Every structure is written in C-alpha cells, then in structure tokens.
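In keeping with the milestone schedule agreed at the kick-off meeting, the structural modelling team has produced records for the first pair of proteins. Each record is given below as a sequence line and a structure-token line. The laboratory manager (R.T.) confirmed that both were archived under the project's standard naming scheme.
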Amino acid sequence: MMPPVVILTGGLATRLYPATLKIPKSLIEVAGKPFIFHQLALLKKQGVGTVVLCVGKFGEMIQDYVGDGHEWSLKVEYSFDGETLLGTGGAIKKAIPLLPEIFFVLYGDSYLDVDLKPILERFECEGKPALMTVYHNNNKWDRSNILFKNGRIVKYDKKNAIPEMEHLDFGINILRKSVFNDWPDGTPFDMSEVFIKLIEKGEVSAFEVFKRFYEIGSIKGIKETEEYLNTKHQNYGNT
C-alpha cells in the first residue's frame, strides 16, 4: 500500500503577486481547474489513498475547496501552520501526529508525472531514513543545486550552488518521522536544512528521474504546465 503524501501548500507565493494576494497558489486556475485538483487526481492515479495538506495563509480556502477529498476518492487531512508560518520543514514537523512512520513529501506548486512505486521500492531497498529524487537539469529549467555522482548525492545547496552541480531536487521525497527528532516544535525551518544534515551523514538515498518537472511558481511555469495538462487530457481524456 502506498504511504500517505504530504503536500506543502503554505507558502506566500510572492513571485506570483498580485494573483496570489487573495488566493493561495494551489487554487490558481490551470487547464480549467484549480491546480490542486490536478495534483490530487494524479496522486489518486498513482495509487495514493491519503493526503495531508500542510497549509498556511489562505489555508481555509484550500480546505473549503478540497474538503475531505471525496471528489478524488482520497482521504485528505489538514495541518495548519497557525499564526507563524513554519517553513517547509516546520510544517512537516507539525503534521507528524497525522502521519505514519514513512510518508512522501511533495510541494504544492509541482506537477510531477512519474510513477511513485519504483521510488518507494528504492527507499525500502536501501533502508535509509530519507530519499530524494534528482533530475539532470544542468540549469535548464531552474538552477541546479545537487552534486550527484555514481548514484549518490554528494552535496546539496539551494543557496550556494557550485559549477559542478548539474542536478536538482526533483520534488518527490520520502521520509521517516525520525528525521525530525532533533528539530524543535513550532519553530520555522526549511526542509533543505534537514536534507543538508542528512546528506552529510550519508543518510539520504537518491532516485534519478528522467522526465522533466512542471511547476506553477512563475508565470512561465504556469503556461508550460497548462500546455502539458491540456495535451495530456486531449490524449487520455479528462479526469
């Protein structure tokens, strides 16, 4: 059975202002539906049964739209940041009571049309507490931030990239609860901080993905995602 998926939807999406001044990024219309509709439909197709949405500002609007997930035949639960935005890491830490020992993590602005099963199999086979998917981006779609050699993540740094970095984090992660044991409750922190420490200790498996990602973090990204979804729906029928 597929583990639950945490979707991080609590960001402010300042790059998309003014569009996101009154609605969350997840509810931006893409290919005729709020973006989160497409995310949840894809997860259902991939065999996921439970989703936990980490929400921040405008979280109630997402909850009003998605509800309990019955439209997608999913079970959907919510973890609210509260008055202080907790960052990607802090938001997951707060959601821990809703989660089993192992879970996926995705970002609320990404459409990642790849099979989750082989990724889970790699995680289970290697037995490390975390897995990160990587993509040979070579600075094409976004700035590369990973040094990846011989199937292993050697270095990961979102802020200080080096020329040798040709891969980036694709956006699908698998984690054990235990990776958050040393991180404080209620304190904002980023998932990149967690991964940097885990990578330094050799505790992160890697799974290389060979299909590009789509995202709605920019106007250009929204246009490309919409084109992809429209083409996909024309080929396979709308969901």
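The second protein of the pair:
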Amino acid sequence: MKGLILITNNFEDVEAIATVDVLRRAKIDIDYVSINDELEAHTQSNLYIKCDKLLKDINLGSYDFLVIPGGKAVMSELKNRKEIPSIINHFASSGKLVASICAAPYLVGRMGFFEKGKYTCFPGCNEGVTEGKRVDKGVVRFNNFITAKSMAYSIDFALEIIEYLLGKAIRNQIDLSVYGDIR
C-alpha cells in the first residue's frame, strides 16, 4: 500500500503534515511529491519541507491512492496546472482512492467526480464544482473519494483514509493512539 501527497508552495501545513503523520502511524507508506522542479516547498505559513520525490520522476501506476491538501496552493498553483486533472483522473478512473481536503475538493469536483454523490469542502470552495451535493460535515466518504472541510478535520480525514484502506479495526487502533482517552 503506497500513496502520494501532492505538494507545492503555499500548501496548508496541518492538512499535509498531520495527515501524513497519522497515515504513517498506521504503517501506510506515503511520499511527499513535489509538483515543482525542486524537492523543497514552503507551506502557507512559510515553513519549509523537503519532499521525497519530484512529480516528473515518479510513475503514478506505482501508487495506490492520492491525497491533495488544500490551502492557498489550490487556487494559486494547482487549479491552473495542466497535469493536475490527469493525475486526479488516473486515480479516480482506476477506482483508486482520491482524498482531498479544504479547498482541494474543488479540483476533483470541477471534473464531475462527485456526480450523484456528496462531498464537503471549505465554505466557498465549491464554486465551479459541477456535480454532487456539498454537505456541511467535517469528513465525507463517497465511493472512492474522501473529502474534508478544513484543517480542523485533518486527523479525522487521515483516520477515514485509514479505514478506507485498512478497515475499521486499524482505524480504531490508530484513533486510540492519536486521541487516547480524550474522546
């Protein structure tokens, strides 16, 4: 089981880093993949991370799922990149999981993948989503798509990905390791 998380400048810090942290606790292999020509990228709060790989150097077929964090990067970088729709289409049309959070469900929804289904996103980021019904929930699962409303739901977003990939028992185990007995 191997996933990739798309990274570019101005991605939302918590949505990417917390999601990867929780997935790795479940022993899910996931690469930070830069869509730029350099491994280093900065978050929207100006922290720098070093990605594992460059998009131009990977084979999408070697990945089982896709994660797209939100933040300023969605509207300033990702929505105009010609390779983004083909990446999303590669995973979605193969029945592989596409997980997007905050503004990123816009990228998936504008391609019509939420047709006859439900999704969530950051308020206002559903402009241009051609199909489906936006619901006011933290995390929504529809077919092979998981969407989350905002950074505040990053951990629950990752737990839903774990449940989708590995089942409810592993999700519950990781949930306990993350939240302990505070729930």
